Amino acid sequence: MKKSLLALAVLSAFAGAASAQSSVTLSGGVDVSIERQNGAWNMGAGNSGRSNFTLSGTEDLGGGMRAFFVLNNRFSARDGTNSSQPLTGRFWRQSWVGLGGAFGEIRLGRMLPVLQIYNGDFDPFGTETIGSTHTGGLNAGLAGSARNNNNILYVSPNLGGLRVHANIAAADQNGPGTATAITNGTERPIGFGAEYAAGPLRLAAAYDRNGLDGKTKGLYGSFNAGFATLMAQWENGDCGPLSTPAGGDWSCSTGTTTDVSVWSIGARIPFGAATAKVGYRNNSDLEQKKFGLGLDYNLSKRTIVYTDVAKQSGDGFSDLSKKARFDVGVWHKF
Predict the structure, then answer these.
(1) pLDDT digits (tens, 9 = 90+) for 114-154
(2) Distance between CA atoms of 111 and 250, rounded to whole angstroms?
(3) Who's near 300: CB < 8 A, 6+ residues apart?
(4) Contact (CB, 8 A) for 302 and 27
């Protein structure tokens, strides 16, 4: 009896050690807002990636090696669907598996290219809400890839604050998207970049070529001054038929390719449980400007109420899109 109990205890210890070396996590959030945009009131269908769920996991392989994966999907909390995206129902936002070690990380699957990995971190609004002044690559009508299928991404180890990223993808399934399919591209999407972080300073630079041979490059920076985190973005790229596609509020010619530069500045200002956000984006090439102002209030570590206002101006916008924009919403993370 004692030997049986001892054997059971040993097996339990081994099982506990094995389970401690691997884990799977469900996370995400739900975000719904009431918003006024283009002169009309509506319920927001989730701001960018805030309404999403993510399955992620990691396993310690020993010897400093690990395996990990991410399955991430976005949905509209307004009606529970994802109908605005191609191939509804898949893990369209990110789905990849990888290996990591002293060499860095290798990831395989569908994921953000390097330029998109960087640029969202330098917008005070995190690319979310009516107020966002994100330069945004594809979101600004430029030719940066939004996400790549059949992609290989390399992430270097941290070298004294410097980290390098590089990606390459097949042309297959990396052309323009429709409601039911994504077509093949004419080129292999590629991207590379580097970021440096030391104390309050963070700098990044990236280059992206999409499946239609459209090219975008970007420079980014932020500085935490204590009372506020200051941010800046600059992107330059092809705008027009090489975009995949030109989207958002930006309007590029569909017949010719235009070289366009977009820049933005902004700040996040915390005070108590609240954070104020302010940003300004300028695209003089397309005669488009935008000012955004917002406020987040943390009811808890997981629940935020927020409100934002924005105003667009310039001859590149229609009269309707120049009308003031407003939102107020709740974002719960889990």
Answers:
(1) 999 998 899 999 988 999 998 875 445 566 677 899 999 99
(2) 24
(3) none
(4) no
**Tokens standing for residue 238:** 């092809």
3-state SS string for 202-231: EEEEEEEECCCCCEEEEEEEEEECCCCEEE
Q: Using CA atoms, how far apart are residues 228 and 223, in angstroms rounded to an integer?
A: 8
Query: In this structure, what is the dihedral angle of CA atoms 226, 136, 261, 184, given to the nearest 10 degrees?
Result: 150
Cα 248 to Cα 136: distance, rounded to the nearest angstrom: 10
Residues 43-70: b if buried by 16+ CB within 10 A, e if exposed:
ebbbbbbbbbbbbeebeeeeeeebebbb
Positive or negative torsion for Cα 333, 230, 130, 144: negative
Contact 309, 328 (CB under 8 A): no
In 3D, which of 231, 287, 286 has the Cα closest to residue 260? 286
Distances (CA, A) of 232 to 39, 133, 184, 208, 222: 29, 10, 34, 19, 6
Output the six-digit token pair for 11: 């097996």
Residue listed under structure tokens 């932020």: 222
Domains of the chain are 23-333 (2.40.160.10)
**Are 295 and 310 in contact, with CB atoms under 8 Å apart?**
no
Q: Which neighbouring-strand residues pair with 62?
A: 65
Per-residue pLDDT tens over the stretch 45-54: 656 578 888 9
- pTM assigned to the model: 0.86
DSSP class per residue in 99-127: EEETTEEEEEEEE--HHHHHHGGGSTTTT
Is 115 in contact with 122 (CB distance < 8 Å)?
no
Beta bridge partners of residue 162, listed in sequence order: 159, 196
E strand or H helix at 152: strand 148-155
